[in-house]
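Narrative summary of target 7.
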Amino acid sequence: MTHRNYNISRRAVLRQGLSTFAALMAAPTLSGCGGSGSGGVEPAAPQPPVASPPPDYFVPRTVPPYPTLQSRIVDIGPLADVADANGLRLPQGFVSKVIAHSGQQVGGSSYVWHRAPDGGATFITPDGGWIYVSNSEVSGSGGAGAIRFAADGTLLSAYPILSGTDTNCAGCGTPWHSWLSGEEHSAGRIWETDPYGERSAVARPALGVFTHEAAAVDNVRQQIYLTEDLPDGRLYRFTPERLTPLGHPVLTSGTLEVAQVVSGGGVVWHSLSDPEVRAGTPTRNQVPESTAFNGGEGIWFHRGTVFFSTKGTVQVWKYDTNSSTIDVLYDGRTLSDPPLRGVDNITVSCCGDVLVAEDGGSMQIVAILPNGQIKPLLQIVGHDRSEVTGPAFSPDGTRLYFSSQRGSSGAGMTFEVQGPFHEPA
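Modeled conformation, tokenized:
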């Protein structure tokens, strides 16, 4: 602070009068010399607060804790011989309904459900309900939409959360309540979106520019695993440069690595020098010794294991994050009549049942149980030119959401199946 010396004589005061003296004492140069008790001096005019820049991460919402569940999938019986009114073969005790058709308004909302619904996830809401998010795998006009449900399962609303992007295939829900949506083309990026529809979507190119399929968050090591849907695609891992105050990854910067499988099933990770492909060399070609995975599809992290599927080889893999080793969980090529063919999107139950949605094949969702048993959970009948996409459980584990991407006539359909998939632990 700068202080100035004012010499005001008694004679000047008497000559000019008390009013002039008061004016001198109220001169602006004296502001800041005291507060409300500074001899009648008016305080400086309040300045508007300086707005803090928004954080470069999505701040988690305050939502109820997810319930603790146990799986009952091992007890589910065989599929019915005849499809129900919605074209689904279901086990006894399960019921279905169609919650959205591509090209039609969802429920009483004004949102027209997107074409080619693909990867999906659910998010709990502050009122105890939930949101189902679904990608739109449309070239040049993709994006993602959301359907919100009340705690009793009533459909409340629907709205877009991402638009104007390209061929949004799969992605993942994050522990900080955002949806990562991947673009499936050579210049594809991951977009972080708000399932609650209140924050704008943000591109996250630090997670790589390539033909994105799905992603999975390791909430122990705070890393993100990503698949690439190409015949010579790769498996990637992103390690953030820093974490948020709550310990979640900040997705603006970090190290992107690519996997190399060595003898004995060990995995070596190599950092990429150009994850955003500024120099033109695709990420999958930047490390010649990295391992190709034919048609990387769904991926999920569960209790130290990363499960992912490769459609080109009809396999489901499991990567142990503790030992950095990889193995095959399911190999359809070794079976004369494989119960699971077009492996694609996956989700994992609370207790480690790996649910795989078929792209083609028998149009089923099949569970691979922890004991290795293969159990069909449902089948869509009459949608022979479609694929099953976006499987995701409601927070209480009793409802399974998924889509037939092209339906029976080219227009997508999104379903809800309710039944005893889980029960409270």
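The helical segments are 10-16, 18-25.
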